[in-house]
Specification:
With about 110 residues, the chain is an all-beta fold. The chain contains no helices and 11 strands.
């Protein structure tokens, strides 16, 4: 069973930066993609960014130019560098790995507030 462990959330002021990390274990295949989703209070979970095998990336329009997703293939760890954070980025951020099945982390809270 794939396990995903997220870290790096916290409280940051508007305009600040945070880096989220998600370490995967027991993946068992090199054919997978990883991504970050978020869910704000009262809203549905939405895709923030995804990185595919080969390094192709996708970003939601709301984070383009501010967030960067990248991964360490040896450690099977995906990162989300978040810059120029806005209050509307406040949410629980979830790591996802898809290898034919979807696996989720428990989530890490990011709060952007002054």
């Amino acid at each position: 069973q794939v396990q995903l462990v997220e870290s790096g959330g916290g409280l940051v002021q508007p305009g600040g930066s945070l880096r989220l990390s998600c370490a995967a274990s027991r993946v068992g295949t090199s054919n997978y993609s990883m991504g970050w989703y978020r869910q704000a209070p009262g809203k549905e979970r939405e895709l923030v960014a995804r990185i595919y095998r080969g390094g192709v990336t996708y970003y939601a329009d709301s984070v383009k130019g501010r967030f960067t997703i990248y991964k360490d293939n040896v450690k099977i760890t995906v990162y989300l560098q978040m810059n120029s954070l806005k209050p509307e980025d406040t949410a629980v951020y979830y790591c996802n790995l898809n290898s034919g099945m979807d696996y989720w982390g428990k989530g890490t809270l990011v709060t952007v507030s002054s």
